[in-house]
Each structure stands twice: as C-alpha cells, then as structure tokens.
Amino acid sequence: MTLHYPDLPPGKHLVIDSATVADTYRLERRQHRPARDPAEPVMAAELPWEGDNVTVLHVRFDAQAGRYRMWYQAHDFQLERERKKLGRSPYGNVGEPQPIYLCHAESDDGVHWRRSKLDLYSHPSGENGICFKGVSGVASNTFMERPGAPPGERFTLVNCEWRSLGIGGIYIAHSPDGLRWTYTTERPVIHGHSDCRNSLVFNPERRVTMLYMRGWHAAAVGWPNGKGNPRRRVSYSESPDMLHWSERQTLLTPDELDTNDFYGMVVFRYGDLFIGQLWIYDDDVEKTIHIQLAFSRDGIHWTRLPHRPAFLACREPGGRGGFMVMPAQEPVVVAGQIFIYWTEHDTPHDKPSGGAKTFRGRLRLDGFVSLAADAPMGHLVTRPFTLQNDQITINAATHGGQIAAELVEPCWHDPEGQPVEGFAAKDCNVFQGDSTAHRLSWRGLSNLRSLRGRRLLLRMALVHAEIFSFTL
Predict the structure, then answer these.
(1) CA-to-CA distance for 287 and 349, rounded, in angstroms?
(2) CA 339 to CA 192: how far, in whole Å?
(3) Residue 177 carries which DSSP code?
(4) What are phi and psi of 175, to 5 degrees?
(5) What's the whole-model pTM score?
(6) What DSSP letter does each residue of 79-138 carry, written as one string?
(7) φ, ψ at 170 (rounded to 5°)
(8) For residue 78, what is the enclosing H or E element?
(9) 174-214 tens-digit pLDDT
(10) What is the CATH architecture of 35-365?
(11) I need a labelling partner for 436 at 20 to 30 A (CA). Which of 215, 355, 450, 460 fits?
(12) CATH number of the 12-32+370-471 domain
C-alpha cells in the first residue's frame, strides 16, 4: 500500500503545507511580504528606445560573472498608435512597427542597472538594448534557463504571437546567451489567445516542461449575449520535447473568496515546491492586479492560505503603484537572501499610461511562510524520516520566546511515539535567537551520527517564535 504522504527524504523542508508537517497545535501559518530594499525604484523608462513603460520580466544572478542580469519589457505607446492606424488586424497587433519588445540590462548589486547596447534590432531612436522582438511583439513572455541543455538551447522563451488577423498562438524560442533568440517552429506549438504572462517551468523529476497560460472556461454557454465566459483563468499544458504539447486544461479558477478573474500565474521552483505568483484581477470594480502566493508539490494541484493574503499589494488607488503590481518570473537567491522584483503601475489595467516603476524587495531565506506561536505554547510534528545525516537544522526566529525539540521513534503500540533517550525535550538546548541554519543539540550534542539509519519524528514546542523550514 502506498501512503499518501511518504517519509521525508534528506534535505530542506518548508513548513508551508501538510506534506512535511504531520500535525500542529496552536500554530498559525503566516505569510511574509518582501521589505522594499531600497525604498526607491531600481528601474524606470529613461532612454528613448524604452518608450513609456518598462516592466521587469526576469532577473537572475550570474555567479560565474558576479553580476545580475535583467530582462524587461519596454512599451512604446507612440509606436502602438502608429501600428493601429495601419489596420493590419482587428486589434492592431500584427507587424511593424512593434511597440512592445524585450530588453536587457546588467548590474553589480541588483539595484543600479546598466542598459545593454546591443543593436540587434532597429528602433526609430537608434542605438538600443532590444534583445527580442518576435514577429508581432513581445507582450507576454517569460523564459527559463536549463544549464544542462544543449549550448544553443540554454535559454528557452515562450511568447504569444499574432501572425495574421488577430489569431494568437504560443511559440517557443531558444537562445545560447539570453540575447539572440530563434523560434523552433514557423507555426505555434499551441493555438489560441494567451496574452497574459505565460510561464515556463522545467520539471526535472518528470522530465517535462510545464507551461502556465491564460485560459477560458471551455464549458461556458454563450447566452444571452453570445459571448460565453470572457473571464480569465489559469490553464496548463506540458511537453516532453517542447514540440508536442498536452491538451490545454483549466487549472485554477476563482472561488467564492476571489474576484472574478485570475489574470495569470508565474511559477518557479523553490526546493521541492512549486510556488506560483497568482495575479488577482479585479475586472469589475477597481481594475487592479495584486499578487497572492499559491503552493504545489507537483505543479498541478495548488493550494493557497485560507485568508488569501496579498504577497505583493497595490498601494493606495490614485497614488504611486495604486493599481497594478506585476512580479518578475522568480526570485533571486543570493548570499542567503531572497530578492523579489516587481513593477508597479499607477493607472488601471484598462487605462495604461507611462510612469511604471520597478522595485526590489528582500525576504529572508525560505521566508515565504512560517508556522508561528504567540503566548500559548504551540507544537509541531513532522512527517517520519530516516536520518541519513549527522545534523538537523532549523530556520527559525524567536521573539522573546524559545523553541525546544525532541526526536521520537514512531512505535506501532504507542501512537504518540517514544522519545529517543537523551534526545527528549527535557534534554534539548533550547533555541533563542534568529538563524537560517541553527543546528539542534541535546545536552550540548549536535552530532547525530549515532542515530543514523533510525526512523524518527521531529517534534517541536514554540513560544513567541516561528519556524520557516527544517533540514534533515
């Protein structure tokens, strides 16, 4: 018989869901927002070829070169107006001049950015840093990096194109350096309209590429006005070779606690989790977009925190950043810290204008969600595991309180388990402080070599404290 929750393997385990934590008592899951660092924007449209708005799409740290790289979208409203006047399609989104394109910049510190001068594509203003224009434009792309891929396919980009008469489709492009891109096919690999932020993630366990797109409700009845259901959802397809894709399925749809639309979701891997930045779109009243976090173990089945807190929130409507928040594809983990990039828009979705600003935030390592206790003591019990290393560490912080831990052997005749002699809570050197990798110890002993190979549970008691992850 296969258990729904198998024993935990060695490695790091976040406490986001019940896949790693068997039970809790008097603990609350708390989501944490990134703190602005610095308070000022790190990117805005400044140069002639950047048009009116720039929006961050992807940031990564090149450890070998010791620098950050940013890919961002530039939007030139004047070029957009010129193309619409040509009337080549119902929406004015086919052919030149292309008003939306992908650009590149570099930074030594992730804050101060140097625009690349590439001149790979033409622009009315002359010299520019455009690195991809596609055929009709770059309105909805993200990309992923696969270090183990063939040299010419190290970077893979997904983009929605309109090649004729407003008919859209998903295209895949490869690049050796993230600057020079080549489409893999002349025809779309997936047909259909998906001008949200399409998101690619490679799943190494299953050896498939996972694609998250805009979806429409396939079963909607076009009555009484014949339009069916125009609401935005998150749909999904996957491929073993990025040429043959599974039938697109609706994956996430709003429930009773949501607004009517999910504008899209960008997904990234963090440890053994898939984390989605879900775009919550209020299309009925405010015309705003804010970001909630969603979590999955397989990239297919998703959960959110019950109270649906905003991870990236709009500021006051009518002020700076008051209407839309759009995140980069994934965070950047550097020197034990998580950096989050996002762009804030000052106007509603249906009334775009210039002035968008990109910000950076800082989050502690593993700091998306914690299990926290206040004055009443809270308790946590992990799933069973077979100890294969010489230590157990926790990423935790105490706030005038403490954390105590014990190791327990599961026992069929004692459902509560039996504490291992010498490793009970009364033997624990309690933790007080703030550490991303505190090594647990009992009576001064932190080397657990003598327990290797034994099947155990980790139980913890918390008072005025919180835990983010544990590493076995």
Answers:
(1) 6
(2) 34
(3) S
(4) -150, 145
(5) 0.93
(6) HHHHHHHHTSSTTS-SSSSP-EEEEEEEESSSSSEEEP---SS--TTSS--EEE--SS--
(7) -90, 130
(8) helix 77-86
(9) 999 999 999 998 888 998 878 888 999 999 899 999 999 98
(10) 5 Propeller (2.115)
(11) 450
(12) 2.60.120
